[in-house]
């Protein structure tokens, strides 16, 4: 597992960037920037610390899939940590086995640092070797979309 890091400067307050990124008040903003990963990306659950949350979408055949996760930490407008510990396969939640072991306890962290009206978003994500190329290209596109949405 490798840790990837991405940064994006956004001309908006940390509060606005945080709310846009997480879809607080309007889940559509989350769905719009995460569409870069999967056009049907959404989440079910809460961003509250300690909460279970599903990051889900459907594949080309309409089958539901995604990640079972926990919000390890959430300091509004400053930091969010997501711990992935399972996968969604159709209607099943799978939290053990070889597919899960590849991702078990991987973290995805978002930091928000505001200075002079510009918020720097830093994403740190644990990624398995077989997804390195995908995430190296897709995170950049997703953060560009987030920037576009938050600067509106």
Structure overview:
The protein has 152 residues and is an alpha+beta fold. The chain has one domain (2-150): START domain (Alpha-D-Glucose-1,6-Bisphosphate, Chain A, domain 4), CATH 3.30.530.20. 26% of the residues lie in helices and 43% in strands. The chain has four helices and eight strands, in the order βααβββββαββα. A hairpin with a 3-residue loop joins strand 4 (64-75) and strand 5. The model has no long low-confidence stretch (mean pLDDT 94).
Task: Give the secondary structure arrangement, pairings included.
Elements: E1 2-10, H1 14-22, H2 27-34, E2 42-45, E3 52-58, E4 64-75, E5 79-89, E6 92-94, H3 98-101, E7 106-115, E8 118-127, H4 132-150
Antiparallel strand pairs: 1-8, 2-3, 3-4, 4-5, 5-6, 5-7, 7-8
Helix pairs in contact: 1-4, 2-4
Protein name: SRPBCC domain-containing protein
In short:
With 152 residues, the protein is α+β, with helices and mostly antiparallel strands. It has 4 helices and 8 strands; from the N terminus they run βααβββββαββα. It has a single domain (2-150), classed as START domain (Alpha-D-Glucose-1,6-Bisphosphate, Chain A, domain 4).
Keywords:
single chain, 152 residues, alpha+beta, Alpha-D-Glucose-1,6-Bisphosphate, Chain A, domain 4, SRPBCC domain-containing protein, START-like_dom_sf
The fourth-level CATH homologous superfamily is START domain
Low-confidence stretches: none
Mind telling me the CATH class?
A: Alpha Beta
Instruction: State which percent range the strand residues make up.
Output: 35-45%
CATH topology: the name is Alpha-D-Glucose-1,6-Bisphosphate, Chain A, domain 4
DSSP strand tally:
8
* Rg measurement, Å: 15 Å
> What best-fitting shape do the alpha-carbon axes yield?
globular
Counting structural domains, the number is 1
- For the terminal residues, how far apart are their CA atoms? 36 Å
- How many separate helices? 4
CATH structural architecture: 2-Layer Sandwich
Query: What class, by secondary structure content?
Result: alpha+beta
Helix content: 25-40%
Biggest sheet: strands, sense, closure? 8 strands, antiparallel
Rounded mean pLDDT score: 94
Task: Give the ordered list of helices and strands.
Answer: EHHEEEEEHEEH
Organism: Zhouia spongiae
Protein name: SRPBCC domain-containing protein
């Amino acid at each position: 597992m490798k840790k990837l890091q991405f940064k994006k400067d956004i001309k908006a307050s940390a509060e606005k960037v945080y709310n846009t990124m997480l879809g607080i008040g309007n889940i559509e903003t989350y769905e719009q920037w995460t569409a870069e990963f999967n056009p049907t990306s959404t989440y079910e659950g809460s961003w509250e610390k300690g909460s279970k949350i599903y990051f889900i979408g459907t594949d080309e055949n309409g089958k539901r899939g995604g990640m079972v996760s926990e919000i390890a930490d959430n300091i509004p407008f400053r930091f969010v940590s997501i711990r992935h510990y399972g996968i969604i396969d159709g209607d099943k939640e799978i939290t053990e086995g070889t597919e899960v072991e590849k991702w078990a306890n991987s973290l995805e962290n978002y930091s928000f640092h505001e200075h002079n009206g510009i918020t720097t978003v830093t994403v740190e994500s644990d990624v398995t070797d077989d997804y390195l190329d995908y995430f190296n290209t897709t995170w950049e596109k997703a953060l560009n979309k987030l920037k576009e949405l938050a600067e509106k």
